[in-house]
């Protein structure tokens, strides 16, 4: 069942592309007009960022520009991120599941338009999604939005659904 859902998500992503742009290589950072960066990574690089043993609570949201529930929750995620921006024990990371070749044409304009001010990574590892999806959470079907909380290299919580501002704040307070 998981493979069917993942396949459907991949097919949706591929059919929703509409631009022929250059593919960025893993680790490439591209700056938006407001200084926002999109870093294109594979799962191992992303995992090394998330599983740091630095006493920070990492709120990691998997999303895509074509995912309506993802887009709907991002303004509230940005409000929460703003509220915690001066807390040294908090870090919000957004992981785009858009195609890497859409970083310039779709993702960066989206970040500017929606005033996204969190660390943004684009996970360019679609061919191995059946490996990294269960590595994030064994019960994750691959559907987005999905939010994971990590602290000191350990996963604390996982939610495979759109979260409200209140739900997100409760999760943060529970683990901060």
Short description:
With 176 residues, the chain is an alpha/beta fold. It has helices spanning 2-16, 43-50, 68-84, 103-113, 129-136, 165-175, and strands at 29-31, 37-41, 57-63, 90-96, 119-123, 146-151, 154-159. The chain has a single domain, classed as Glutaredoxin, CATH 3.40.30.10.
Helix proportion range: 25-40%
What does the overall shape look like? globular
Structure annotation, total helices = 6
Radius of gyration: 15 Å
Q: Runs with pLDDT <50, length 5+?
A: 3-34
Q: Hey, roughly how much beta strand do the residues contain? A: 15-25%
Distance between the termini: 34 Å
What's the SSE pattern?
HEEHEHEHEHEEH
- Can you tell me the CATH topology? Glutaredoxin
Can you tell me the number of structural domains? 1
Counting DSSP E segments of at least 2 residues, the number of strands comes to 7
| CATH superfamily descriptor | Glutaredoxin
Description:
It is a single chain. By secondary structure, this protein is of the alpha/beta class. The protein has one domain (2-175): Glutaredoxin. The chain is built from six helices and seven strands. The chain has a seven-stranded mixed β-sheet with strand order 1-2-5-4-3-6-7. The longest helix is centred in the middle third of the chain and has 17 residues, at 68-84. It starts with a helix and ends with a helix. Mean pLDDT is 84; it is low at 3-34.
